Amino acid sequence: MARGDLREAASMLELAAQRGRDASTLLKLATVRRSLGDFPGAIGAAEAALELTPRNFLMAMLLGTLRELMGATHAAERAYRVACAHAPMDLSLQPAIHKKLESARRRVEAVEVWRKRLLEWQPGDSLAMTGEEERRARQFRSNILDNLDSGPVAPPVFLFPGIKPKRYFEPGNFEGVERLAADTDAVREEFLRLAESKAADFSPRLGGLHFPEGGDRLGKWSMIPLIRNGTIVEEFASRCPITMKGAATLDLPKLGLISPSLYFSVLEPNSRIVPHSGVTNTRLIAHFPLIVPDKCGFRVGGQTRRWQPGTPLIFDDMTIHEAWNESDRIRVVLIADLWRPELSRAERLAITNLMDSPIPVAD
After folding, report:
1. pTM for this model (two decimals)
2. pLDDT tens digits for range 141-154
3. CATH of 168-342 given 1.10.10.10, 3.20.20.70, 3.30.950.10, 2.60.120.330
């Protein structure tokens, strides 16, 4: 690490972590993985360390920070809650950590405000819900409250009752999807112009725009957000007017600090996104493939499909899914959220209201 050879340091720390579960080693591994841009790997190491030392202030702060960098605000708050509960009495000599702790406390306090509002929630006449819709909405509220009390390592999962898991959905059944897919060439050009204009910023992550000069590249997944957890990212969205216009025709869900999201997903050469699942069954995920080399694949449950530019894929991300790119070029997909079609209008309004969390976004 001192020599700056982070890749070798990561390899040695990973070997050490395999030989013995030690929180100090895992903390160093999380730090090195973060420096390498491997945020999912860093989060995994930090979670494992916090399991070993559940009252470790610095570990909880690191985990919360990593999750927040990945846009996982709900999961970040859980780690910050632990950090706030076990913070040292005096951090006056460490102003940067003190400032971050104050930010963490604001998030924890906001959750308590949200909890109180959930406990007092009533659907009201404006929602015009049937008895069955109200029953499901109240059960969803109970699920949110249960999530707020979960530990720092358990992933947030917001489940609406009565929705059966599924793998893929027919794109033609969703408003705006085929229209945006028809603009594939224009959307691809907007991505390429954006990537090239930000070459200095993105070069470590978007090096696969061209054939790599050497092998042994660290596999990575990265994203360029146009809408991040419900907030438009003007820096990037302003450069993609055709993409944003097409996205405006989609049936985008409104889920506090989760959706809508719209982003370019870049899977670099010789990289894999490990099997994982989402945080809520109230939305679906739409893939609009833009750049797809050979040797790429996508699996939802036990069903594997190949991306085809111009052909959207819509799937239930609560089903375990994974992706891979075994080529020497990047794979680029535009990803958007969609409302789950089984939800009625009244249920969607209730979900939006219940998920309207006051947790502030990152400072």
Report:
1. 0.87
2. 999 999 998 889 88
3. 2.60.120.330
